[in-house]
Amino acid sequence: MVCPMTDETKTDSGESVAVDTAERPSTIPPDEMSRLTDEIVGALKTVYDPEIPADIYELGLIYKVDIDDDRMVTIDMTLTTPNCPSAAELPTQVENAVASVAGVREAKVNIVWDPPWDPSRMSDEARTVLNMW
Q1: Is residue 56 included in any domain, yes or no?
Q2: pLDDT value of residue 13
Q3: Considering the domain boundaries, does residue 1 fall inside one?
Q4: Which residues pair with 4 in a beta bridge?
Q5: Looking at residue 60, what DSSP letter applies?
Q6: Is residue 35 in a domain?
Q7: What is the mean pLDDT of residues 37-49?
Q8: Domain containing 67 — which CATH number?
Q9: Within a 10 A sphere around the Cβ of 2, how many other Cβ atoms?
Q10: d(C-alpha 44, C-alpha 37), whole Å
Q11: Which helix (H) or strand (E) holds 67?
Q12: Residue 24's pLDDT band (boundaries 50, 70, 90)?
């Protein structure tokens, strides 16, 4: 179930990511939801923009991840620019990476442009890799 309410959760790198909270409790047990969330983040961190030596998660390109009760995962993400040469391949790579997580039924990516991406969305890890201090 997708709902407009979100909470923020901290990742291992300390970055905040919006995670949907349902109006009613999920039918997925809390420990399973935690495992799915951790493994989905891990899968997202395996996808790299081919022109930037940092993964898309640390670059701040992932805006929202929703796991519904049927284990369908919907990801709202953006690209560094609308003219990104990887625009055709990155969403498919994200869908494949997330769909490979045990327990995920299917993954779907929505490309969003609002808010537009800017370097302030990068984690400290990405800033270090890109020497952007």
Answers
A1: yes
A2: 52
A3: no
A4: none
A5: T
A6: yes
A7: 96
A8: 3.30.300.130
A9: 11
A10: 11
A11: strand 62-67
A12: low
pLDDT at 15: 54
Q: Buried b / exposed e across 62-100, counting CB within 10 Å, b at 16+? A: bbbbbbbeebebbbebbbbeeebebeeebbebbbebbee
Q: Model pTM? A: 0.80
% of the chain with per-residue pLDDT over 70: 81
> Of 53, 21, 55, nearest to 37 (Cα)?
21
Where in the sequence is the domain holding 72, given as residue range(s)? 6-129
Least confident residue range of 15-19, 31-35, 64-68, 92-96: 15-19
Nearest 5 degrees, angle CA 132-CA 57-CA 6?
A: 115
Tokens describing residue 62: 């992932």
| DSSP-assigned beta bridge partners for residue 55 | 48
